[in-house]
Amino acid sequence: MTNYSQAIQEEYQVMYRIGVDVGGTFTDFTISDTRTGEDLFFKISSTPADPSEAIVDGIDQILKKFGIAPSDVEYVGHGTTVATNMIIERLGAVTGLITTKGFRDVLAIGRQTRPALYDTAVRKPEPLVDRFRRREVDERLNATGEEIAAIDEAEVEKVVEELVADGAETIAVSFLHSYQNPDHEQAVADIITRKRPGIYVSLSSKVLPEIREYERTSTTVLNAYVGPKMAAYFDRLRSKIAEMGITVAPMIIHSNAGLLSIDTAKRLPVTTCLSGPAAGVMGAAVVGAAAGAPNLVTFDVGGTSTDVSLVVGGKPKLTSSREVAGHPVKLPMVDIHVIGAGGGSIAVIDDAGALKVGPRSAGALPGPVAYQRGGEFPTLTDANICLNRLNPIALLDGRMPVSREAAIAAIAQQIAEPLQISVEEAAYGIIQVAAANMSRAIRAVTTEQGHDVADLALFAFGGAGPLHAAEVARESGAKRIIVPQEPGTMCARGVLLSDISLDFVRMQLSLATRENWLAVCSALREMIAEGDSWLASENVSPASRRFELAIDAHYDGQSHELRVSIDDVDANGFDDFIRRFAEAHTATYGYETPGRPVYIVSCRMRAVGQVPKAATPTYRGGSTLAKAKTDQRDVYFGPDEGWKSTPIYRRSALPVGETFAGPAIIDEMSSTTVVLGGQNVTVDAFGNIVITD
C-alpha cells in the first residue's frame, strides 16, 4: 500500500527546471513545469560585482512568487558572460606561461592577418601574460610526438618558483607538438601540483589538442587567465544554491550551446565565453523549428549589445574559431556576430557633428537616464520612452518606474539642441541609427555569406529585440518576424532547450587512403568510448547518449581545412567521406578537384546527452482582441507619420489565430513589441507573435 501511494505521489508531483541567463543589465529566468510543459518567466536587475547574487536573489523570489518548494527543483542551468567580461576588462588572474625553448614570444608575434589593413591607428591587444612571466624550458617533441629532448625536473621546479615569486596565480603550459603527445605537459602539471598545490594549471593538451601553435597557446592562456576566478564563482554559486535547499548542482552552458557540469566548467572555463548568447540561439532554433521556421536569423538585443546568428535547417551555424577582445579562441562555438548596440547604448554627437549610438553603454548601473539611477547620457531606451514606444511610466509589469521627463530633458540638451531639431526627431534619429547598425550586422551573417534575408525569418528576442525588429526587418529586407513568449528571457529559456555536450578532437595528419582510413576509424571509436565515459560522469543515461562525428580535411597542399560530417565509423565508409568532402569543397569554394589527394587533419566527436526540449503548443491566450487592449496612447512613428494614436495590447491576452494590422504596441513583462503601419500580426499556438510585411 505504501509503495502504491508513493508511486501515485511521484506520478503527480510537479517538478520544475530553471534556466538562468546573466546579462549586462538584467538577469533572466525561465521556469518550466515538467508535467504540463508550460513556462513561467521572471527577471531582475543584474549585480555586476557578483553575478551570483542576482541569480540567488532571483531564484528566491521565484520560489516565493510561484509557490515552488526548493525540493521540487530538479534542474538549474546557467548561461553566463562572466569569463568574456573578465577578458574584456582584463580582470583575470595574474598568469604565467611555460613553453618550449624558443617559443616565448608566440603570443606577441601572433599572425600576419590584419582586419583593417590601411588603418595605422589599429593596435593589437597586449598579451594577457607579461613577457617576464613567459618562461621557456629545454624540452622538445617532434611533429609525430616522439621525444627529442626530455623534461628536466629541476629546471621546471626552478621556473615554477620564479613564476610564483613574480606573482603568478595561475600557470598555462603550452609545448610544441603536445597535441601529439601530452606527456611533457602532464609532467610539468604534476610538478606544479606537487610544489605549489594551490596554483591553477591549464594544459594545452587538455584545452586544445590541435595544431596551430599561436591559437593553441592563446586559448590555453585564456583558460588559465579566467580559471581561478571562474572556479571560485562556480563554487560560490553551487554553495549558495545548495543553501536554499535545492538539491541539484547547477549546469553551465558553454559556447557551442551545450551544457557542462560545474566540475567540467571549472576545468575548461574558456568554453563559457559567449555561453549566454549561444543559449539564446539554441532556444531560437528549437522554437523556430517547432513553429515551422527552421531557417532564421536570430536577433538578440540586450542592454549592451546586439547578437545576430544564422540558423539553417533548425541547427545553429557553428564556427571553430573567433576572437574575444582581440585574443583568439579556437574552440567550437555558435557563430555569433556581436555589435555594441543595445538598449543601454549611449547616443552622442561626435566631433564631426554626426549622431552615433554605441558602442558605449550605460549598463545596469547607472543605466538609462529614465531609470533615475544616476545615468546622465541619453540611451536607446531613453529614445523609446521619449517616443512612447516603451511604457512612459514603468517597465517590468510596473516593477521598474521610469521618468519620461528625464529622458526628454537629456535628449533635448545633448542631442536635439546641438543638432537644432525637435526632441522627437532626435529620439527617432537615435532609433534609426541603431536600426542601421543592427541591419549591417544581419547582412554580415546572411547576405555576405550567400543567404537571402527575404528567405529567412527574423527571430527577435532580448529585452529590446522586439522593440526594433519591425524597423530592422524593413531595413534589412526580412519579410517575416517571429517574437517568442517573453523574449527578454529567451536566453534563459534556451538553457532549458540545450543538451549536455562536449567536443573531443584527435589529430590524425595523414593522407586519406584506404589504409589510413582504418586508423581514422580506430581513432573515432576510441573517442566515442572516451565521450561515453564522460557522459556517464555527467550522469547521462545510456539511452540519452548520442555521438556526432566529423573529420577536418583539405586537399593536399592547402592550408585550411573543411569539416565533413560522417554518420558512423565504418571501414567501408572511405568512398562516402571522399564524396562528402568534394561536396563540402564545392559548397564553400565553388569547385572540386577529382583525383587530387585529400589530407586528413583531425577527427572530431561531439558527445551529446539529450535532454527534454520539445517546444509544445500550450499557449491559450485570450478570447478577443478587444479584451486584450489595455490602453491607447500617442506614439511617434517618424516624420512621415508623426504621432499616431496607437492601441496597446497585453500579450498574454491576445487570442490565438486572429490577425490584426499595425500600428500597435504589444506589452509583456520582459519586452515590448512595436508593430508598424502596414504590418500584420497574428499569434500562433506556441505563443509566438508572427509579424508579416
CA(first)-CA(last) distance: 62 Å
Quaternary status: single chain
Low-confidence region ranges: 1-12
- How much of the polypeptide forms β-strand, as a percent range? 25-35%
Question: Residue-averaged pLDDT, rounded?
Answer: 90
Rg: 26 Å
Helical region count?
18
Based on CA inertia axes, which overall geometry fits?
Answer: globular
Q: Percent range for helical residues?
A: 25-40%
Show the helix and strand layout.
Layout: H1 2-12, E1 16-22, E2 26-33, E3 39-45, H2 51-65, E4 73-79, H3 82-88, E5 95-100, H4 106-109, E6 134-137, E7 140-141, E8 147-149, H5 153-165, E9 170-174, H6 183-195, E10 200-203, H7 204-207, H8 213-243, E11 251-253, E12 259-261, H9 262-267, H10 275-290, E13 296-301, E14 306-312, E15 315-316, E16 318-319, E17 322-324, E18 327-329, E19 333-334, E20 336-339, E21 345-349, E22 355-361, H11 380-386, E23 394-395, E24 400-401, H12 404-419, H13 423-445, E25 457-461, H14 465-476, E26 480-483, H15 490-496, E27 500-511, H16 514-537, E28 545-555, E29 562-566, H17 574-589, E30 598-609, H18 625-628, E31 629-636, E32 643-650, E33 660-661, E34 664-667, E35 672-675, E36 680-683, E37 689-692
Parallel strand pairs: 1-4, 4-11, 5-6, 5-9, 9-10, 13-25, 25-26, 32-34
Antiparallel strand pairs: 1-2, 2-3, 7-8, 11-12, 13-14, 14-15, 14-20, 16-19, 17-18, 21-22, 23-24, 26-37, 27-30, 28-29, 28-30, 31-32, 33-36, 34-35, 36-37
Helix pairs in contact: 2-8, 3-8, 5-6, 10-15, 11-12, 11-13, 12-13, 13-14
